[in-house]
Amino acid sequence: MLNYDVLVIGAGPGGSSAARFSARHGLKTLMVEKRPDIGSPVRCGEGLSKQWMSEGDIRPDSHWIADEVKGARIYGPSERKPIVLTAENAGNEVGYVIERDKFDKDMAALAASEGADIWVKSPALSVIKEGERVVGAKIRHLGSMEEVRAKIVIAADGFEAEFGRWAGLKSIILAKNDIISAVQYRMKNVDSDTDFTDFYLGSVAPKGYIWVFPKGDHEANVGIGVTITDMKDRFDVRNYLDRWIKKHPGFSKGKTIQLVTGGVSVSRVKDTFTLPGLMLVGDAARLIDPITGGGIANAYISGRYAANIAKEAIEEEDYSPDMMKRYEKLVKDKFQRKHLRNWFAKEKLGQLSDDTLDKLVEIVSDASIKEISVQAILEAVQEKYPEMVSELEELL
After folding, report:
1. Are 376 and 320 in a shared domain?
2. Alpha carbons 94 and 98: distance in angstroms, whole number
3. DSSP strand E in the chain: where?
């Protein structure tokens, strides 16, 4: 039997953050990763905003930055004039396109530099509980079954969220409209703009969008996310993306050097994502933004919150539901309002016709909006298409 203060399951951004800050607090920490190589295989669009990095105590590093962009462009179905979001009207939501495998390794290295132990190719296979409290896990490591006991367990095992489910949490997403199926090609010899990330809305990607994230000159991630309720078969999503690429000569001439597929949760923040002695972070806690599908920043921040509560729990020798609720409150105060708003927006956007989406993009792109806001958009709609106000008011 091995004993730790904190056991972290999963070495993505959320797990590495939890391990890093737990170790910084002086807690004996072990992080385990089921794969032999942290960060691989990549399952990510690889976009990263700037605004959260100081909160995560992360410095941008050219080692994992493939491209720094000036902003984002959002195209309607007709792909005429886009909405352009830059630092001037969208703040530090703009940022970088990264090499996710390198980023994840660097985040794990930060955890190791603070003193955390790290095991790779070491899957957690079952939960150890004493009564209602989670006190560790059985882990296969170097060909042996290890029983690792911990005062606090932090589960950061991503979309699958198996550990929390084994422990007794309801982590399965029941609503099919809250799961996005995604396909992405990494492409060479394409005509992408290195200054912008691009998004394409409408029937080209039902209840989702197509994205182009530049990764340097003539290289980009070109991907699509579609709600699984709109899938006819498992090839449907890829067919949508292939059709779009075929219609765009700047991309149809490109060569695919990597294929990434996966599922993304786009649900509201769950009511409960803790048990006595256990906290879920990142996608395991369903903290993916419902509109963008982005989750790196949310995972990292929630990992730091979990480490802070782990410190409090161990100092007070309190592993009760009330102590774990302190973590839930931190997460909900940070994310819940925005996630709920974006979840409703996601639902409404999926109901809009191509014609309405085109008009909405046209309005926002033509209006002199110095800062994107609900009020500014509604005023612009009222001026140009007053008949659309009632339809969009619910969305906005």
Report:
1. no
2. 13
3. 2-9, 29-32, 47-49, 65-68, 71-75, 83-86, 95-98, 117-119, 124-130, 133-141, 144-155, 179-188, 196-200, 209-214, 219-227, 255-265, 274-275, 278-280
As given in the structure block, the two tokens for residue 25 are 């607090």
pTM for this predicted structure: 0.92
**Which of 139, 145, 144, 143 minimizes the C-alpha distance to 117?**
139
Name the strand (E) or helix (H) holding 286: none
CA 378 – CA 319 distance, rounded (Å): 48
pLDDT tens digit sequence for 280-332: 999 999 999 888 888 999 999 999 999 999 999 999 999 999 999 999 999 99
Does residue 164 fall inside a structural domain? yes
Last residue of a domain, one of 310, 336, 362: 336
376 is in which domain, residue-wise? 352-395
Q: How far apart are CA 346 and CA 288, in angstroms?
A: 13
User: Is residue 357, in this structure, part of any structural domain at all?
Assistant: yes
CATH for 8: 3.50.50.60
Distance CA 170, CA 65 (A): 36
| Pair (314, 367) in one structural domain | no
Q: How many domains does the chain have?
A: 3
